[in-house]
Amino acid sequence: MTIIAPSILSADFARLGEEVQAADRAGADWIHIDVMDGRFVPNLTFGPPVIRAIRPATKLTFDVHLMIERPELSIAEYAAAGADRITVHAEACLHLHRTIYQIKELGLPAGVAINPATPVSSLEPVLDDVDLVLIMTVNPGFGGQSFIPYSLEKLRQLRELLNRRGRSHVDVQVDGGINPSTAPLVREAGANVLVAGNAVFAEADRKAAIAALR
């Protein structure tokens, strides 16, 4: 089953609650929330107050992706604001294993993300502990970027590693440059959770846009 998680990074910020509801009606499975701090990535987006404000707009899973330095200091705040699952970057965590279990201790599934230049092999020490792995298919920080083709090889490497370790149930997520052309490629390579921003929110018919990604 392919999970489609529209990223509100591409939504109309002036109508964020309505945009979330529109994605829900269009058939989204999760709502992806890209949190950026202006330090780990060169942009600044949402914090816990925004997540708390839009939480009543839908019952869909809030998939919170923390692109921030020292995420361990604020994970509890995001959980309290309404996050249903939290993903942190391996590159941003001094003690990655500890941070993963900090998320789990809050009762949430824990994900780990890696940037395009980070090898899949760097995740081997934590693959038995995570519920989701996010392969960034663009450099994080901005929406609307082009898909990096080498990401397909990284997805294949990750799926092989997970299968070899008896962890085939772990979700493999992709974020960046996902559209009707790249979606079948990443699915074939092993991804089952597709984050899409412009491919959903820039389209007038969002139901058709989400269907085209499946």
Brief descriptors of the model:
alpha/beta; globular; eight-stranded parallel β-sheet; TIM Barrel; single chain
CATH-scheme architecture: Alpha-Beta Barrel
- Give me the strand/helix succession: EHEHEHEHEEHEHEHH
Q: What is the CATH domain class?
A: Alpha Beta
SS class: alpha/beta
User: Which term fits the overall shape?
Assistant: globular
Task: Describe this structure as you would to a colleague.
With 214 residues, the protein is α/β, with parallel strands linked by helices. The chain has a single domain, classed as TIM Barrel, CATH 3.20.20. Helix content is 31%, strand content 20%. The chain has an 8-stranded parallel sheet with strand order 1-8-7-6-5-4-3-2. The longest helix is centred in the C-terminal third of the chain and has 14 residues, at 151-164. The radius of gyration is 16 Å and the shape is globular. The N and C termini lie close together (9 Å). It is an enzyme of class 5 (isomerase). One of its GO terms (molecular function) is D-ribulose-phosphate 3-epimerase activity. Catalyzes the reversible epimerization of D-ribulose 5-phosphate to D-xylulose 5-phosphate. Belongs to the ribulose-phosphate 3-epimerase family. It catalyses: D-ribulose 5-phosphate = D-xylulose 5-phosphate.
What order do the helices and strands come in, and which of them pair?
Blueprint: E1 3-6, H1 16-25, E2 30-36, H2 48-54, E3 61-67, H3 75-81, E4 85-89, H4 96-105, E5 110-114, E6 132-136, H5 151-164, E7 171-175, H6 183-189, E8 193-196, H7 198-201, H8 206-213
Parallel strand pairs: 1-8, 2-3, 3-4, 4-5, 5-6, 6-7, 7-8
Helix pairs in contact: 2-3
